[in-house]
């Protein structure tokens, strides 16, 4: 992508930043995230995802094939990461039954959004690029998953967003975690026009 093309995409980029930054208050105004509901089961992350899906007019089309896994206990959903829409599309695709694994840098860029998502325990933040002691990192994931109101975890095994026509090499950390912990894995492929389970 050339410099001119990048400049042409800036308005859409800033609009996307604005909506993501204010997405939880917008979801509350749309009555999808019910902050005042103090009793009973809540699924605020799913409400947030549905609100953004409706706000942007995205229709989810589930193609024939395997259904969404619904095991009793932890599950890891491996998803591609092609756009910022993946955050809410993946939450909707998993029917709100999974939190996201996200870099700490996202919390620095979107503190209002990520702060609220941390409060509702719908994200696990980690510091990328830091040499984590594997077992300590895995134990942290165990604790965060156990504390979450949902059993699933959405992982982007390519490590970051890419718009290339081919997949990037997979990061092995969470694949290794799933194997060691004997946690089932389901692949989800989503983009703004296609979502495969």
UniProtKB/TrEMBL annotation:
Keywords: Membrane, Transmembrane, Transmembrane helix. The chain crosses the membrane at residues 12-33, 104-124. The keyword Thylakoid does not apply. GO terms for molecular function: acyltransferase activity. InterPro entries: Plipid/glycerol_acylTrfase. Residues 75-193 form the Phospholipid/glycerol acyltransferase domain. This is Phospholipid/glycerol acyltransferase domain-containing protein. The lineage of its organism: Eukaryota, Viridiplantae, Chlorophyta, core chlorophytes, Trebouxiophyceae.
């Amino acid at each position: 992508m050339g410099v001119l093309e990048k400049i042409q995409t800036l308005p859409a980029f800033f609009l996307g930043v604005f909506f993501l930054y204010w997405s939880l208050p917008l979801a509350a105004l749309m009555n999808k995230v019910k902050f005042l509901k103090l009793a009973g089961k809540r699924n605020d992350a799913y409400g947030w995802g549905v609100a953004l899906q409706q706000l942007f007019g995205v229709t989810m089309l589930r193609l024939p094939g395997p259904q969404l896994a619904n095991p009793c206990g932890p599950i890891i959903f491996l998803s591609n990461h092609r756009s910022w829409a993946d955050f809410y599309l993946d939450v909707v695709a998993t029917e709100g039954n999974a939190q996201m694994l996200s870099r700490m840098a996202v919390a620095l860029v979107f503190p209002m959004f990520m702060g609220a998502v941390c409060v509702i325990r719908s994200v696990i933040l980690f510091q990328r690029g830091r040499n984590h002691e594997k077992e300590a990192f895995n134990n942290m994931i165990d604790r965060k998953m156990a504390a979450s109101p949902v059993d699933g975890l959405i992982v982007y095994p390519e490590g970051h967003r890419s718009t290339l026509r081919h997949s990037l090499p997979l990061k092995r950390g969470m694949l290794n975690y799933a194997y060691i912990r004997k946690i089932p894995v389901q692949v989800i492929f989503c983009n703004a026009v296609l979502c495969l389970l």
